[in-house]
Structure formats: C-alpha cells, structure tokens
Amino acid sequence: MSDMTYTSEMTAPTRVSPEARRGGLKAAERRFGLLLLVPALAAFGIVVLFPFLEALGLSFYAYTIEMSEPEWNGIDNFVEVLTDGAVISSFFTTMIFVGLATFFSILLGLGWALILNHPFPGRTVLRGLSLMPWVMPAIVAAFIWGWIFNSRYGLINALGMELGLLEHPLAYLSTPAGAMAAVVIAKVWLSVPLFMAFFIAGLQSMDREQMEAARVDGAGNWQILTHHVLPHLKPVIMVTVVLGMVGNLQHFDTIWALTGGGPVRATTVLSIEVYRRAFEQWDIGMAATVGVVWVATILPPAYFYLRELMKGTE
Amino acid sequence: MKLIRETLTAGLLAAAVAVPAQADTVEFMNWTFTEDSGRDRIQALMDNYAASSDHEVEAIGYAWSDINKNAFLRARTNTLPDVMQVQGRFLPTIANIDQILDLNEVFGKDALEAQFPPGFLAMGQVDGKQVALPWIAGTIGMVANKQVLEAAGVDGIPETVEEFRAALEKVRDTVPNSVPYGMATKNNNSILLDYLIWAWTFGADVIGPDGKPDVNSEAGVAAIDFMVGLMNDRLSAPEIDRPDARRLFGQEATAFYFDAPSAKKFAADFSGQGDAYIPNVMPMETPTLAADGTPAAIQWGHVLVMFGDDNASGDSAAAGFVQNILSDEVLIDFAVGGGALPPTTSALASDTVKSDAYLTAWAEAAVAPRPNPIAPLSNGGAISDMIGEEVQAALLGQKSPQEAADDLQARLEEALE
Fold first, then answer.
1. What is the pLDDT of residues B82-119, one digit of tens each?
2. Phi and psi for B240 in degrees, rounded to 5?
3. Domain B139-298+370-415 sits in which CATH superfamily?
4. What is the pTM of this model?
5. Facing B96 at nearest CB: one of A66, A150, A175
6. Options 3.40.190.10, 3.90.1150.10, 3.30.70.1520, 3.40.50.150; which CATH number does B21-138+299-365 get?
7. Nearest CA of chain B to the CA of A135: how many Å?
8. Residue A263: is the preceding peptide bond cis (ω within 30°)?
9. Orientation angle between helical segments B218-232 and B161-174, nearest 10 degrees
10. What was the ipTM of the complex prediction?
11. Same topology for domains B21-138+299-365 and B139-298+370-415, yes or no?
C-alpha cells in the first residue's frame, strides 16, 4: 500500500449540495421563509391589495349607478373631494373622533391596568370580566350604548327622571356634542380591554426592586408613576397610540349603528362618508376617491406603528 | 367492448329515466321576511308555491334599509336572486342593474295589460320598460290611534292643521311620556316623506314641474317652520324613525304618524294584542291648511323584479313563482292581510277587497296621492340626503327654518343642474 497523499482533489465532494450551489444554507432558509409567506401574501393580495388597487383605479373614473362602464375623468374626483365642504368636515370630524377615542382609551386602559396590576382579592375574576367588551361584537356594543343613551327608553334618562334630576327626557344623540360623546364612549369602552392587556403585560416586566428602592428613598405614587412606570411603558404607549389611531381611523360599525353619522353630519367620519357615497348616493367613483383619501390619512400612523414593530424585531 | 358500451348506454338511460327532473330553487330576496309582522306571511307564500309545483323557494332576507345595497353588491358578484321585492320609489335605481328582465318579454305585454289596470302596471315601468310587476299598492298617509285620542279627550279626527296641532297638545298634556306625532326626525329617507307631505300641505312644490327646486318659497319655509314648531313644543321628538313611530303607536304613546297601509300589521304586533287591535288604527286624511283643502299623500307600493337570462321564459320556475303570488287565491289574502291593495284587476274586483273596511277607509283618505318627485331622479339618493340633512338641522335647532330652506334650495339647484 503506497502512502496516501492528502490532496484537495481527494477530499472534494463528488456531489455539490444544492444549498451550496444556491448561496448556502442561509439563502435556503430565506427561500423557505418566503415560501411560508406565500399563503399569507396570496390572502393579502386577494383580500386587501386587489380591492385597494381596484378602488385606487376607480378613483380616477366617474362611475355612478346609471353608467354601465366607468368613464375616465383624471383627477377631477380628487379636486372635487378636496374642495367639497362635506368631505372636509368629515375629515375634521374624523380627527376629533380619533383624537378623543385614542386619548381616552389609552388613559383609561392605563389606569385600569395600574389598578389590576396590584394584588387584591378577586383580581383574576375582575381581569377576566374586564375583557368582556373586547369579546363582544362591536355592533352589539353599539346597540347596548344606543339603548343607554336613547331619549325615550334609555337608561340614563330613566335614572335621571327616577331620581328627579330630569323633568323631561334629554335627546343626547340629537346634539352634535352628545352624539360625538356617545360614539367616543362606545368606542373607548370597546378598546380599553385591549389596551389594558398591553399595559398589564408591560407592567409585569417592571423591576419591582427598583420601585421598592424608590419608595425607600421617599418617592410617592405620583413620582413612581411619572419617573418609573411611564418611562418603562414608553414603548408600549407608543405602540398603543399608533394602534389606537389606526383602529379609530378605520372605525365604522359602532358609529353607523349608534348615530348613522348624524345628527345631520355631526358624526360622519370618513368611513361613513365612503359608505354614504357608495350605498346611499350610488356614486362609486367618488366613494373610491374618498376611500383613497381615507387610506392616505391612515398611512402615517400605520408607518410609525410598523417602524416601532420593526425596532422590536431588530 | 361492444358489450361494455351497450351496458353503459343502458345504465345511463336507466338512470336518466329513474331520476326525476331536477327541481329548481327560486331565490326570493325580500325584506318582509326579516320583519316579525311579515315572516310567516312570506313563508306561507313560499310553502304554497312549493306545494303546487316541483320547485322550492329560498328566502334571502335583508332589512329594508340594506336590500338595495345588497342587490348591487350581488350584481357585481353575479349572485343576484331570481326574484326581488323592491320599494316602488327605489325602482328607478334598481332598474340600472343590467341583469334586470323586461317582464313584457317574460309574460307578454298583452297578458300583463289584461292582468293589471294601467295605473298599477305603470308602477313597474322605467323609461318605458316593464322592469317590475306591482305586488301590493297603496299610499303613504296618516294614521290615528283611536285609543290614544280617546284617552286624550280628542273628539273626532282633526281636519285642518290648526285642529291637528290642538289635538297633539291634548295628547301631550294628558298621555304621559307620549310623542303625540311620530314625525320622522332621524333617518334621511324617512324625514323626506314627512317633509314632502307637509311641504305639499303648505303649498310648496319641492321640485316643480319645470324640474327646478322650490323649497325656500314662503310656503316652503312655512312647512319647515311648522315641523320645527312641533319639535319645540314637544309634540314630536328627536331620534324617531319610522320603526320607532310604529312601536310607539302600537304602545299607545303616539297618536298620529305617516305610514303605508301596512301600519295596521305593525300596530297589531307592537300592541301585543294581535289583530284584535286593528280597529284602533284609523286611516285619516292628512290635515290641510283650510277645511276644503286637498289632503296630501304619496303614492306607495312594492313591486317584484326578476333577474337573469335563465328566468327570461314564462315557463321558468321564477316566473311561475311570480305568477303564483300574483294569483287571486294567494294575492288577496297576502295584500288585504297586510292592509294593502292587491293591484290585479280581478283581485281589486273581489268581494274581499270591496268589503274590507280598513282598505276602504284608507282609499277614501288618500284622495289625490302624488308620486314621490325625488325617486325618479338619477341622483335621488344624494338629494334625499340633502333634504334629510337640512330639514333635520332645522328640527334640531341647528339652523332656522329660513336658513335650512335657503341652504336646501342652493344645494338642490346645484344637484339638479
């Protein structure tokens, strides 16, 4: 047996791994990852992207119920929408609704989370019950709140008259401020459990020793909240603010069921405006245009939300 | 090989003979099926047709306010029903759906002219095309609740606007927590009807014969001012839509409101007393400004439309279903039971119709019903919203009657250009 000389020729594999040929294991993992994404991307494309692109296309056409085919009219729809007092007022109504609903959802969600983060008898049951509004369909919640605020047989008026506080029933949903307050309250009631869950998760990751040390140093509840809890929850607050804004910008069902966008147009947010243009006025082209403007208002908060999410994954 | 082929052929032939012809299922989209007062009546229609033919009928129910929207969504996805119930005033809108059938071609023009009086047949025509057949007919007029009037000490039915107001005040002062007149104050489509009737009562045309709006004339402003006055004096209330008014009427908290003849079925249901309550529902002439004035009312009716080339023959299951529910033995019970007129010539001549006290009273109260002038407009939906918004703004005190009328005039002029 002759001495064997170790050469590269002898050690070279006779068959090259397919992964190696296509860029190595990492590339293969990436391809596999992309493959796993295909069903979600397909669903996104069919359910979200295609309808959006179709609506985007229609926003450049005149398309009313009388037309068998849409007619191209360039940017006329956009000019009309952006100079239409009704749409501009809907835009401001949307901002008021989003601002109030997001602010109070976060405020109450945080407050409730702080309460439920402390140990006390029955806390677990209360935490479970607190999730009920989140579980409840929004339309059911709207009808419940509609009954509470109703001027004829509503709970608030019944209590007020029973206690002698009211001489006649008040029509809360018939004043612009009352109707806006009602839809904000209903939406806040629906949103608080979700935000509370976010905040409780954040609170549970806090360093208790740090807070105890602060207390030993003489910090009161307010100092603990402002100097320890809120800074710790800052990323959670950022995400909930953006998530709340996106959700409230998209909101339709509670408002439609509770006020129908009224009285007059007091609660006609952009989602209601789109519905009215499409299904009451049968102007699909203008509805698509308002819809595109509506999406444009959602994009900035959605971008910040995604950026915060990406930060978390990096 | 030959044996196999012969065996297969014989088998297929045997199977073809053994299996009866496939029964068709007729899809019937309607809103009456979703209402408590109508579900059993529609079910009875469907069962009757199934029993008298080889075909089944499937009800596709949508609420009245959602049915037109769903018709258009279904048109986009090619899932239109075979037959659909349509509110007469929305027919010009529904007639825009491409798949709608010309029923002269399905049933024959001569046959339809023999079946319906010309006035009723016209309910189903749009631009000269017979796109629908009348199903039930009547008017939107005022009804009074006998029990409430008696409780309030109101003697007789008010004939003038002044008497009407006095009666409302009596009801307000004697019936606790009442809404004396269930005026529509919430939904644009409902506000429109109340407004049209009062505008006509005060002498405003809303949209004149020349197609131009006439809402801020002295008469137009007076009509809105009258409606606002009722609100200010708690003779009407905010947050009232037609369904609310029906409920309050049946519960004896409302003395008057505008509705179709089917008001009696709603009163029967909401009173909890069933048909025994119907004698308390009194059709009445809309009060007029002067004692000898002409009471205002709006033409009203439900029509039936058919979709799809498969149904274009008079022999189709869907055509059979339509003719079945328009036959005397089915239609008279259905229409009269619901308080409406059956629009076929033979049904109108029947003893059941002629001897029905409620229908007779309703017909006498509707002296000269007028067509809804907004319905045939291509942008009728947008115009209904404009009228609803401006009138509601006045009713809720956000605008004066004059401001609301002026703003409405300006918006209508732009929309009708």
1. 999 999 988 988 998 989 999 999 999 999 999 998 88
2. -110, 125
3. Periplasmic binding protein-like II (3.40.190.10)
4. 0.80
5. A66
6. 3.40.190.10
7. 26
8. yes
9. 10
10. 0.76
11. yes
